[in-house]
Structures
1.
Amino acid sequence: MKYIIFNWKSYLNLKESENLSNIISKIKKSKNYKIISAPNNFFHLSLSKKFKANTFAAQNFDLDGRGASTGSLDISHLIENNIKYTLIGHSEMRSNHGENDKIIHKKLELSIENKLIPIVCIGESLKVYKSKKTKNFLNNQIKTIFKKSHMYEDIILAYEPLWSIGTGLTPDLSEINEICKFLSNILKKYSFKKINILYGGSVNLSNVSDILNLQFVDGVLVGSASTNSSFINYFK
């Protein structure tokens, strides 16, 4: 079964999110795909009441905790709305809000403590890619985020090259497969009950089928393309 995760970012208002969620709810359960949507964080309450909550992921949560933290989203709000998944370390949180791998590690630990399934995002810059240091960069990210002494339950890892997100550029299919194979091999040094490796970065209707057919890719994390009903209907 392949994971299909829709990251709607801040493209949609509540009504538009409900419309797409309604389309998704009518797609028959498939042995081939597991569809999860990540709407605007503040829409979870409304959407989880109307649709199956365990089909939603949070786009992020804060480490501040409950209390005097204006604008923060505490992890308890996800739990009380039965949200099952959460994105952690998306490149836009890293670039726009200063998150680094040490923060991602703390969020990973907190999500595990609260029985949320984390979708951990990693990926290299164009400079790293052009210097052919992608594998070394990703390995260092994993070393900081994960601990070899820890036994992890259910983890989803999303490889998202930063230079590919929202640009229309993607690595060659052979490169995607090679990197996901590399990640699979280095993750054998860690203890996971279940680990799935996804690809994200300018996934669209013209390339999603080829990417999903790659041997070492367990699914896709899709941004703007997933706000289009024609992309969603592809998985009927």
2.
Amino acid sequence: MKQATQMHIENFIKEKPEFEYMKDALLKAIEILAECAKNNHKILVCGNGGSAADSEHIAGELLKSFTLKRPIDDDFRKKLVSMYGEDGDFMADNMQQGIKCIPLTSFCAYNTAFLNDCNDSMLFAQLVNALGDAGDVIIGISTSGNSKNVLLAEKIAKAKGMKVISLTGETGGKMKEISDVLLNAHSNITYKVQEWHLPIYHQLCLCVECEMFDM
């Protein structure tokens, strides 16, 4: 792990000492996510309600620059220019490297069709089955840790050889048992758990980006 990443974690704990208990879990989650990204695998994210919005938020931070510049690599730049000339230069200058992240909450047509035609508890599990591969990671978000559609998605992920990171409330709920890393907020009140989740996943995004792109 890069020294800059370790400094990010140290500064985070210094600024928010209430997260001290989670330090080791955060480091493990960062290692899993960074390994996934470095090997060009995918991060799948899911949750319900406010946690669905958090899923979209996480993807937004990973698919484009968060705090660091992410210029495309020289070989791809040269290819674009050789293929498209001036347009290639424009695209190369205005494009960033991304970390593959899919919010499973985003498939409007699929989600409505599945909810109409199938068992709603399998909504995310079906997407993990269709999109997930060994080496990928799922981030499941549930304030209770018991959201059935998130739990079943994590079980499918585990069966496919994926790593499982869970953001939950204090007890971890049923998701605790299936998780490779549990990031459990010190509350069981839904909106307070969600308030804990934001700085947690911002720190994950910050540190994974650092691992990938900090020179």
3.
Amino acid sequence: MTVLPITSPLRAWAERRNILIGARAIAPGDEAKLWPEEARRLGSSLLDRLRASGAARGLARDLLSSLLAPPCAILADADRVPLWPPGFVGSLAHDETHALAAVARETDVAALGVDLEPARRLEPEMTALVATPAERARYDDELLGGVTLFVIKEAVFKALFPADRRFLEFRDVEVDLEAGIARARYGARCAFFWESGVKIYALATRES
């Protein structure tokens, strides 16, 4: 397992909240990290998807073991929400090359979400779908044209959806980068931290 560097500000932010977070490159053979139940659920998925899913779930199991959680299959419900061992919460994500996972005890964190994307420019029409009017007024074109808000909001969606089961559009969430707070239109709130480099990583935790 390759975790985010110990000096990573994102990892430090997570550890202050008793969250374990890790990232690793997806490699040939990661499909074998899927437990039989997980592989059956994925069925005839393409090899790339099986590898990414195996990498993310294997990473999550490694992190859970550090919290003394029992080894288990990480299945998903009808809404594709991962099912965690009793007493634990977590989130999974991957892009084409890397997997990301975060876990915590329910006694420390109500819910969390993670996401990652390569640092890149969004298509102009996508920018219009992601940013709210307030965000377009607050942030410059450089930030609005990249994936930062996209990644943060994806992490927020993952933190909010398991409990609320509300499907949100990007503009249903308002992001305050300076405060590290994101608010959903219906009132739920998440704290978040993001880190940029070759990839953009985001971790969100439900606050209310």
4.
Amino acid sequence: MRLKKNIAVSDTGFVFNPTTGDSFSINQVGQEIIRLLKEEKSVEEVKSNITSVYEIDASSFEKYYFDFLSMLRQFELLDEEDEH
């Protein structure tokens, strides 16, 4: 799963989708996850990175990560062509 290439993300957590004109604000953890998605990291790589940097256990991370991906999907920010 990866972020669409045209999605702009600022250093302050501002996310802009030029296709829809929608914009969003995300926190520091969300910014890190989006950076890792742009680098096409696997779920395990994202989990390893986030759990080593932030105080969160693997189980909690997975719940929040998949909720976050669901939100990204809802706002049409993910490129899911290769998943069909």
